[in-house]
Design brief:
- This protein is an alpha+beta fold.
- The chain has one domain.
- About 40% of the residues lie in helices and about 25% in strands.
- The protein is built from four helices and four strands.
- The chain has a four-stranded antiparallel β-sheet with strand order 1-2-3-4.
Length: about 100
């Protein structure tokens, strides 16, 4: 099916990457141990999160909800957005248009 979007793809992925960097345990989705994650240089962590954002973007085209670390990532096609939620304490919204 795929996700429809009107913004520049690089801008969407930039916002998505920024949101994912605030997710506790996001490295687990990449099958990394916490020690390995903490040893990475900041620019390498950002590159990993950008790859994760790209993978999740395409994954959300077939599954409307995915779990990353302690968060739920949801594609809302009616509102043209992606939500990154951690209960009531954290919500990030990535606008697709």
């Amino acid at each position: 099916m795929g996700i429809k979007f009107g913004r520049e793809y690089k801008d969407i992925i930039g916002d998505f990457t920024e949101a994912l960097q605030a997710v506790d345990g996001c490295y687990e989705f990449l099958e990394m141990e916490e020690g390995d994650w903490t040893e990475l240089a900041p620019e390498d962590r950002t590159a990993c999160m950008q790859t994760l954002a790209d993978d999740l973007f395409y994954g959300l085209g077939t599954e409307s909800t995915m779990h990353v670390g302690d968060c739920q990532v949801t594609h809302d096609p009616k509102r043209h957005l992606i939500r990154v939620d951690r209960g009531d304490s954290f919500t990030r919204v990535i606008h697709l248009v």
